[in-house]
Each structure stands twice: as structure tokens, then as C-alpha cells.
Amino acid sequence: MASPRLDRRLLPRAAGLALALGLAACAGGTVPPPVVRAPAQCLAELDRLGVQYQLEPIEASANACTIDDPVRVSAMGASFQSAAVMSCDFALHLDRFEREVLQPEARRFFHFGVHSLLHFGAYACRRTRGGKESAHALGRAIDLAGIELDDGTVIRVAEDWRMPGKNSAFLHEVAREACHYFSEVLTPDSDADHYNHLHLDTGPYKLCIKR
């Protein structure tokens, strides 16, 4: 018995449905672990990109938090308002996001680059409120509180996220773009715990709601 022929007119519709299902799957669940680079290779890449860092020894703790190749980063293209400890691989993710999103979007909205990143920390040996292992405990997350532009203007998530105007539009665009670079992006629209920062991580869970 001959196999039924597929109506070619249905191919675009089928392809569109497959794409829609693929995008829906990205909204939740888990994602593959990040590419693991050899320590020397990762550090060499930080050096090539001009990231300013120091090697950071992380001692074993009671909670057994571990970081792969920990570094204390003080500047990328922009300086950090205070140095932050993170895994080398996460530093590469964050540097790419800073170069490809934060800097160009700041110039597009304000005609100035980003001078410094304001944050509430990266590595923290703790679990989430729901009891899951936090990406912060692996040095694979940062809580971005805002930025300072080259002209001294400060844009803060706590003050500007819900206010009308360019500052808010900039922060929302940054959060949307962050979904392409990080596994989980949490904003003030996510829950009360994130009223004053954007949580960005490369952990195993995929969660990014674009608005």
C-alpha cells in the first residue's frame, strides 16, 4: 500500500507549529549544562577580552558550595561598583552580555556608554527560597541593580523599572535581550524578591518571561 503523500501546502503551517512549540518549550523546564572549558582556556579568554580579575580561592563550606574556576571580577568593558566572585565561565557569559547588549543599548537610548555595573552580588553560598540549589551558590548568577552611564547618570531597577520613560524602556529591553544569554532572568515583574534587581544566571532551569 502506497504511503499517503504530504500536501506541500501544509508544510509552512507545520513548520510554524513546530517553531511555536519549540519557543514554548524554552519558557520552562531545564536546559543543558553550559560548555565546560579547561581552566587555562577560560582564563586565557578572560585575558584576551581584557576582563580585570583575580583568582579567588573558595574554601569548602558546611553547605558544600563549589565554584568551577572562581575569579573575582572588578571590570569588564565597564567597571564593577564592587568586585564580584563568580565562575570563570559565568564571567565570560556576563562579559559577552555587557559588550553585546548593555553597552549598545545604553548608547542607543542615552548616547552614552556604561561606565559601571551596580550589583547586589554574584557568588553566595545559599539555597533558593523554594529549597533548590541556587545558581549563586555555584558562582553562576549575578543580581544586577542598575548601571551608571559615562556622563554620571545612574539608572536603578528599584526606582526606574515601573516608571514611564527612557530609563524604564531601557531596563525592559535589557531584560528581554538577557533571555538570549542566560538561562533564568528574573525581574520586578517576577516576584517581590526581585523588586530592585535583575537576576541573571546560567543555571539548569530555564525561565524567562518576555513582556
Structure, explained:
This protein is α+β, with helices and mostly antiparallel strands. It has a single domain, classed as Muramoyl-pentapeptide Carboxypeptidase, domain 2. The protein has five helices and nine strands. Strands 1, 2, 3, 4, 5, 6, 7, 8 and 9 form a nine-stranded mixed sheet that branches. β3, α3 and β4 form a beta-alpha-beta unit. The radius of gyration is 20 Å and the shape is globular. The N and C termini lie far apart (51 Å). The N terminus is likely disordered.
Poorly predicted tracts of residues: 1-32
Stated plainly, the CATH topology is called: Muramoyl-pentapeptide Carboxypeptidase, domain 2
Rounded to the nearest angstrom, the distance between the terminal CA atoms is 51 Å
Strand content: 15-25%
Name of the CATH architecture: 2-Layer Sandwich
Instruction: Please provide the count of β strands.
Output: 9
Q: Give the fraction of residues assigned to helices.
A: 25-40%
Query: What is the 3D shape?
Result: globular
User: Tally the helices: what do you get?
Assistant: 5
Overall number of domains:
1
Largest sheet: 9 strands, mixed
Global mean pLDDT: 81
The top-level CATH class is Alpha Beta
Rounded to an integer in angstroms, the radius of gyration calculated over CA atoms is 20 Å
